[in-house]
Amino acid sequence: TEIKQLHRTGFHFQPHRHWMNGPNGPMYFKGIYHLFYQYNPEGAVWGNIVWAHSISKDLINWKSLKPALSPSKPFDINGCWSGSATVLPDLKPVILYTGIDSQNRQVQNYAIPANLSDPHLTEWVKPDNNPIVDPGTEVNSSAFRDPSTAWLSLNGHWNTIIGSRSEQTGMAYLYRSRDFLNWTKVEQPLHSVPNTGMWECPDFYPVSHFGRFGLDTSVMGNWFKHVLKVSLEMTRYEYYTLGKYYPMTDKYVPDNTSADGWSGLRYDYGNFYASKSFYDPMKKRRVLWGWANESDSVQDDVSKGWAGIQAIPRMVWLDPNGKQLLQWPVMELNRLRRKIVMMLNQKLVKGQIVEIKGITAAQADVEVIFSFSSLDNAEAFDPSWVDAQAVCSQLGSTAQGGVGPFGLLTLASENLEEFTPVFFRIFKAEANHVVLMCSDARSSSLKDGLYKPTFAGFVDIDLSSKKLSLRSLIDHSVIESFGGGGKTCITSRVYPTKAVFGDAHLHVFNNGTESITVEYLSAWSMRSAWVN
Ligand code: FRU
């Protein structure tokens, strides 16, 4: 079938064709980054799931290899679902993944490279002693999946967590092993939260208190925190907590600085799911991969011939305030930056829009620092506004505010019939200011039958410098935005009909009474990456 290129991305990871969902087993091994992913080799809809496999030297340009795991044995004959890679201390990678077995149960299997001296690790073997974990009689066999990267405990055993639920209580079961083959369930799950439903793709890793350096999943010591992330099947959003892990007792206790569950912290307040992180020992960083699903119809996907992209891999580290994570696109992305256009000290009065001309606005990277001289005009914040998304869709980007809405109009058509605004709005609350960040797809396309959500999150940031920064990666059908230096991230998928290729435009705008200054803006045309 013909692949329609209109909304394909230029520098995001996607297969040449067909369906892709979550990233699997990302790892660094002997100079090469590996990315596996949930893939349907037969079409642009979910099904027939295999582990497709690509390799890279820079996380941006990728070469695709043959699938690493395909259904073939009784323990995975109905699908090779999500899982993770662990590089054992003797430099032997192992994959743990969920197989859908001949009885349609979810079981956990392992796979190892057929030939460790093949630098690409092309061939993977699924030994016959699989499955290594089955749900038994205690665990719900249709809700038992997505083993995490394993980590070593102080007493020398390996641990992995597996997503599950019991009734409506979401949980991450903890399994333990001495030899990576025989696994036993620990009585208490690592963590569970009532009324959150199935937890998919749990991820558990340490983050250091200071600096941006990442930590190996198995690092020993007590000078760091841990992150527990889960993908909630019910909401299709991901939530994480920061907390303390006690390796002697294998207990995890979340900090009480934010909610645990529904209203907790998110990696991304938009379209970003089933993520996985890994430690990159070369650059000493933790890298996060997440899937951005399509927001068009199944019919559209079939006629496009493809569905699903991976967000640009992000470095993750702990905010110096200790209360949340920060994220930023890996620096290798900057090598695709080509032509630059800058704007300095551009004042934006109420209602003003200024175009950023001279770049390929459909495939661009924009960094901007906005400033304002006073917050006196900030509107009052209604304390009942706990749901950022609801506030954002109520207020929008076009109706006048006090301080904001101001930001970028991305993927805008010539006469603004189509545009996706990414913007801030600042409110005055009782004791502080509240910053709202939005990425609003409602006006993104003239086409009907698309999902055009208003995504939003609050930005927990100190405004004493009277500045607010925003970076957006714009790539034909995706806009990934990083507010406040990576404090709040929002990914939107959009399908403009007019704002495509050379007909897409980029603007800065301000619809608040308070004037806003674009202190500094750089926008780059982005080259296309070599992807699969
Ligand atoms: C996440 C997920 C996983 C599962 C896989 C199936 O989106 O549902 O829980 O392993 O995708 O493709």
State the gist of this model.
The protein has 2 helices and 37 strands. It has helices at about 300-305, 390-395, and strands spanning about 20-30, 30-40, 50-55, 65-70, 80-90, 90-100, 105-115, 125, 145, 150, 160-165, 170-175, 185, 190-195, 200-210, 225-230, 235-245, 250-255, 275-280, 285-290, 305, 310, 315-320, 325-330, 335-350, 350-355, 365-370, 380, 405-410, 420-430, 435-440, 455-460, 465-475, 480-485, 490-495, 505-510, 515-525. A hairpin with a 5-residue loop joins strand 6 (about 90-100) and strand 7.
Assembly level: single chain
User: What is the CATH homology-level superfamily of the largest domain?
Assistant: Glycosyl hydrolase domain, family 43
Number of strands: 37
Low-confidence stretches: none
- CATH architecture grouping of the largest domain: 5 Propeller
Q: Regarding CATH, which class of the largest domain?
A: Mainly Beta
Profile the largest sheet: 7 strands, mixed
